[in-house]
Give the backbone structure.
Amino acid sequence: MSLTLTAVGYRYVGTSRPALAGIDLTLAPGEVVGVVGANEAGKSTLCLVAAGLAPATIGGRLDGAVTVDGLPTAQAHPYELAQRCGVLFQNPVTQLSGTAPTVWEEVAFGPRNLALPLTEVVGRVDDALAALAIAELAERDPARLSGGQAQLVALASVLALRPAYLILDEPTSQLDPQGTRLVGEALSRLVAGGGTGVLLTEHKTDLLWGLAGRVVVLDGGRAALSGAAHAVLADDRLAAWGVEPPGRVRLARTAEAAGVALPELAA
Amino acid sequence: MNGIALATAGLGYVYGDGTRALEAVDLRVAAGEHLAIIGQNGSGKSTLVRHFNGLLRPTEGEVLVDGMPARQHHVAELARLVGLAFQNPDRQIFAGRVRTEVAFGARNVGASSAELEVRVREALTAVGLQGSEDVNPYDLGYSRRKLLSLASILAMRTPAVILDEPTTGQDARGVARVGDLIRALGEAGRTVIAISHDMRFVAETFPRLVVMRAGAVVLDGPPAEVFGEPNWATLASTFLEPPLSARVAARLGLAGVATEADLISAVTRRARESEGALPEGA
């Protein structure tokens, strides 16, 4: 059971330059893999490819293989992938259905389309809203949410599908520090249950430090480095790849350069 | 171009559905001043700044733009004075080409065609999008569309600039670029208000921070003061945490620290003092 990318390359329609090249990646239920990199390094493309939306839905050319629990995404039907992979796009406004009168109905949209019994739909929606502490938004109009609220609602709508693999493209980009913490905690709980694997792209390396087991650095569409999260996030080359190191790594380095000892950072 | 003063007096705002977003906000921003507004999602930050360019009109109290009550200005006049870049670039972008997008606002505030070209070039250079003039904005990634939306506001050359979460979705270089362009606006003497959730970014970029909670201003001062230990309870009440440098400083018993540079110099000063050498500057 895993989501596996083997020697994956990808080109968008009408372009000659590969957006991804030579990517090998495995995501198993029960783990969090973080993806970092400068803008345009291929993070969002990796999400589309991992979820099977590229090339199946948006075209383009895929090299190598992407399989979800052994099923090659290139040949899979969208409904087969949708039950295994949940995707959160970078801009939450793109994600919302635009047809639901309330946040509750918006989050219920996915589960209803899985033809689940109503009691199951209700349970899933309520659980997803509670996990992100947005139960009080249930009756609100999805079109009238703040950027941060819309992002949490979009994430809740993906959580309610309860996919084995969650693919999240910068899920906290519009969130305040509290919202970011909540998402981190909700994902940690979910993954600790053992049934879900999470692949997420993030600029907030502080969040990944506490959440991800492994981290991949993308640079120009290639995996420049991958490995255990703390080792990758403390790598000296991170800034050169356009990635902000976690606060503690950065501060320790600044202190060292200034010849100042800061043992407090370890606490 | 010099900045203009912005102010609110007893500003209150209640949305049509009865949601109260602002209550009795008194905020004075001097001409050329730079400040960041922080606070949790839904604390009223965006609602507050939208009053300065007339997108929202107060339900209570007064908004002053360049000393004049905003209600006496037409929205078109306010647009010449206050540029506002939205949080979500896709709510702002409409043109089919980057060049047209950036020129639109500038043309509408009266820039001549010859001047437009210069303004567009300068604005795109400031955000690092030079060379993308003929690209369709939707062929740019989200983070670059965000930078494009900032460029469109810069090209209007308004005396006051308001940036709603300008660093959202930016990588390390993008964040540094946004910081640089804010500092450049400062050197040009223009008034800047930014909304941000990035505590380290605001501590390093702005001399004044305003903290909002439930539609009201609860703290207002320099970063080292706002992030000081006496204010931690207030910050926590709107779910904010001081930047790492301030937290480490508190553990070391050092006050007046908001940035990494503050922390390093405070630690260095103390080490020197404890060695018996003369304190710096003595």
In short: The mean pLDDT of chain B is 92.
